[in-house]
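User: For a benchmark we're assembling, each entry needs the component sequences followed by a predicted structure for the full assembly. Here are entry 17's components. Please fill in the structure.
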Amino acid sequence: MNKANENLREEIIRMSGVNPKKCMRCGKCSATCPAFDEMEYHPHQFVNMVESGDIEPLLNSDSLYKCLSCFACIERCPRSVEPAKLVEAVRLSVIRRQGENHLTANDIPALIDDEMPQQAIVSAFRKYTK
Amino acid sequence: MKLSYFPGCTLKTKAKELDFYARKCAEVLGITLEEIENWQCCGGVFTTAKTEIATKLSSVRALKDAKAKEQALVTVCSACHNVIKQTNHAMQTDAEFASKVNNYMAPEEAYNGETAVYHYLEMLRDLVGFDAIKEKVVNPLSGKKIAAYYGCLLLRPNSVMRMDDPENPKIMEDFIRAIGAEPVIYPYRNECCGGYITLESPALSKKKSNTVSESAQNAGAELMVTACPLCRYNLVKNGSEIPVVYFTELLAEALGVKEAGNE
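Assistant: Structure for entry 17:
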């Protein structure tokens, strides 16, 4: 693992509070994930890839924006690894950079309808934008 | 009994009926809900990263306000409840986070998660009691088959929320019984509707929502009930064949402070 990857790995582990080494590769997180079909990298792969320092592909993947924050993998992980916390930390390490917001206010008018609750919009901003 | 109340952004706009009937029913049940002054939006979802401080301050402000009045804090929206309860838990258990928050906000007295946080359903169960509610019902919803939709945010993560068994909950079913109706148990009652992905991938939220509403319908439900405006929006927008209403609307109907079916 090169130095840059090692630093990023440490930062993601610190930010998330997750210990990926606890994972026993049962795959329950991915089995219960409601966004599984939409993801290029699935929750169990996030855990594995962060552990091995193979984080670059995750940084560039749309999978970061598919997590629904439903806490299913967090609740159901038999080893309390809590994969969604890793997804969150990887996503933050991207959107905290200058110019890397996934969603901007200008995108909103085209995406909403009259009935959509504010809750949907504030939640999306919380997840996609810094 | 006086309790602090955090309505949240959507209850002031698209989900007014959730808020309106929550207040009305609380009066009938002998509870005064005192709205937090100048409350700020909770942000809709809890950011699990330990390094996120600013996004959690609005919750801490509300919690601190309730503490100053020596009141418990009540929320109705599933999302507000989840964010505020998880933030409170972080203030209790993560000393580094709590000290950063307290250093930033510089309150006269440090806040360390002292406020008790109740979802309105927990208030009904733990502070009022479902038996007491039963006695106040003037218009029991007899014979109505109702599916409780928990979604994700009411129950998870259970280590923090502690509302009910996260995989086999009964608080909403007990509520449904208390108002004289018949609860319908169905497989997808605690699975996700798609949430905010409805903004970017409407097709995914349609798939998730339809799985939930079809599951309820196949189990024989004629009506679904939720505490979450976004769940309701996703289920209705994606064509649920059975109506979806807020639990406070049904409570108001049963307590005789709302006409049946009148929005």
